[in-house]
Amino acid sequence: MNPLLNPPDSAHPTPAVLIRGTGLLGASIGLGLRRVGDTVYLSDPSPSAQAIACDIGAGVPWEPGTVPDPEIVVVAAPPEASAAEVAQALIDFPDAVVLDIASVKATVRDELRSRAADPRHELQPSMLTRYVGTHPMAGRERSGPVAARGELFTSMPWVICPAIDDSGEHVPERAAVAWAEDIARRLGATIHYLDPDAHDESVALISHLPQIAASMVASRLQDAPTSALALAGNGLRDVTRIAASDPGLWVQILSFNAGPIKEILYGLRDDVLRLISTLEDPLAPGGQADIAQLIAEGNSGQARVPGKHGAPPQSFAVLTVIVDDKPGQIAAVLQDVATVGVNVEDMRMEHSAGHEVGMIELSVLPSRREELASALTEMGWRVAT
């Protein structure tokens, strides 16, 4: 059955999906699709990675010629290999919709167009109507199929980037885009639409820049005295958490999206040089105001980061509960909050090694904060004011 002639609908049976690449994202997609009843086949250049993904239930090995061709092929390859894998899938499976999930989209699009325009390649321009570029904005610091989770994409953004060139050619069939949307929905993701260039500019700012900043801050810790690191709290952990990411993957991401990242780093460089200049003589006229302005600009940018359901963080009030460092305290607090009937919009745990207490920060609607604080205090909890 050709999915291009049968866009997904409530009456359409679950598709057969081939996932080419069984790392964290590929295996997680397999687990999620298997959970909703899809038939999933797995293929990976690494026999061990494929075997692990099969063992955890992400799918079954792809054995060409023994089963019908898949209706959908998901290319879950690293950025440097994505275009070649997409091209081969379009050639090998002439009736299949082919998606890729690479974190950089414009370079994949450009390489596919180049291949299709080159008579030496088997890829034909008409085949590109079955290709849809996508990018699930989800991940973990750990990599490989052992880190895969079927719920990894739940409520996470999944960007769909149908590539259209200036001539209007290479436009994906509407049914192909519908299948891309359907895969995202089956995995519980929220769908967003961007053209490939806008996507790359966006992720350079909201994903690639934080990775660079985290890695550079964490690199300063390599020779830090143990006595200094013993003082570290959640601030340092928050800033450096993603510095544990895979270097090999980030070499590709930063290389393939160098243009947009470079422009952002120019601006960051200007801010750093400005601060260094001010700190050369912080008590000089205007120095204090310049430092305050820099921090205030950060306040303004941070305030624009969406919170739960896309709401700005300021729309919630924070209540801090001090708990003993022993099992069951977090569950007990949340149970008592539920008893009061207040919904927790977000939660954060502040805890440092060596402390005998922890602090649970609960984000709630401002209109319920005082009510909850009073109720928890009466229940015997220590509520910070």
UniProtKB/TrEMBL annotation:
Pathway: Amino-acid biosynthesis; L-tyrosine biosynthesis; (4-hydroxyphenyl)pyruvate from prephenate (NAD(+) route): step 1/1
Residues covered by the Prephenate/arogenate dehydrogenase domain: 14-313
Keyword list, A-Z: Amino-acid biosynthesis, Aromatic amino acid biosynthesis, NAD, Oxidoreductase, Tyrosine biosynthesis
Catalysed reactions, as listed in the record: prephenate + NAD(+) = 3-(4-hydroxyphenyl)pyruvate + CO2 + NADH
GO BP field: tyrosine biosynthetic process
Enzyme Commission no: 1.3.1.12
Signal sequence residues: none
Domain (ACT) ranges: 318-385
UniProt cross-references to InterPro entries, sorted A to Z: 6-PGluconate_DH-like_C_sf, ACT-like_dom_sf, ACT_dom, NAD(P)-bd_dom_sf, PDH_C, PDH_N, Preph/Arog_dehydrog, Prephen_DH
Gene3D superfamilies linked: 3.30.70.260, 6-phosphogluconate dehydrogenase C-terminal like domain, NAD(P)-binding Rossmann-like Domain
GO molecular function list: NAD+ binding; prephenate dehydrogenase (NAD+) activity; prephenate dehydrogenase (NADP+) activity
Family to which this protein belongs: Belongs to the prephenate/arogenate dehydrogenase family.
Listed name of the protein: Prephenate dehydrogenase
Protein source organism: Candidatus Nesterenkonia stercoripullorum
